[in-house]
Amino acid sequence: MIINLGFYKRRSDLTHEEFSKHWTEVHGPLIRSIPGIEQYLTHYVQHHVVPDPANPLPFDLDYDGFSEAHFPSIEARDALFNLPFFQTRVIEDEHKFIDMERTRIIVIDEPRTIIRGFVQTPEVWAGLPGADTA
After folding, report:
1. Thinking of the domain 2-126, which architecture would CATH place it in?
2. Other C-beta atoms within 10 Å of 108: how many?
3. Cβ atoms of residues 99 and 93 within 8 Å
4. CA distances to 47, 63, 101, 107 from 9, in Å
């Protein structure tokens, strides 16, 4: 399995709300409507940035959202991207709301979960290698 993480900035003529609405209500259903999508894509998630003026960090990623697209293999991803439907309809739609020059894609492999659930007590950590038990 591979995962494409795509980071997206809206076109300058759109508000964040217009970008999010189009991505959710138009682009998402368009992806879902690709004939045979289930043989190429196993999981597709949109993450919409929530503006947070109270964020104390002095930097910002300056993206309006990012997506996770999970594929069974690189070959499946490439096959999807080469479909005529994808090459015309999907890419055409992306230009309607995404600043394509600022789009960034990274390819990652399967996640490795380090902690699952909520760790409540220091005793849980005591048994881990390198844990400070003093």
Report:
1. 2-Layer Sandwich (3.30)
2. 11
3. no
4. 12, 5, 9, 18
Structure tokens at 24: 């959710």
The residue ranges of DSSP E strands in 15-114, in sequence order, are: 43-48, 65-71, 104-108
Global pTM exceeds 0.70: yes
* Burial readout 72-101 (b: 16 or more C-beta within 10 A, e: otherwise): eeeebbeebeebeebeeebeebbeebbbee
Does residue 87 sit in helix, strand or coil?
A: helix
How many residues are recorded in the chain?
134
The residues spanned by each domain of the chain are: 2-126
Q: What are phi and psi of 103, to 5 degrees?
A: -70, 140
**What are 101's two structure tokens?**
């020059």
* pLDDT, tens digit, 9 for 90 and up, residues 53-103: 777 665 567 899 999 999 999 999 999 999 999 999 999 999 999 999 999
Which value, in Å, is the radius of gyration of the alpha carbons in the chain?
Answer: 19
